[in-house]
């Protein structure tokens, strides 16, 4: 038996899509950079090697990226709950 869903289908807005894919992309880049640092350390790179070149940027991406992705996911969830609550109160 199939249950009929009487709730109206909510459309996915552009901002929702941006937050979802942005959070996914930032989190993926952060994890990749985190593993790059682990691999670089395992290969014997010292502190001086991590201080120059592209390594400060690679180290900053997980430091700022993971909290930013977490905040984007929380904002997406709150917006979704508010939209679903408004849609339920209309019907």
From TrEMBL:
Transmembrane segment boundaries: 18-43, 63-82
Source species, domain of life: Bacteria
The entry's keywords: Membrane, Transmembrane, Transmembrane helix
Protein name: Multidrug ABC transporter ATPase
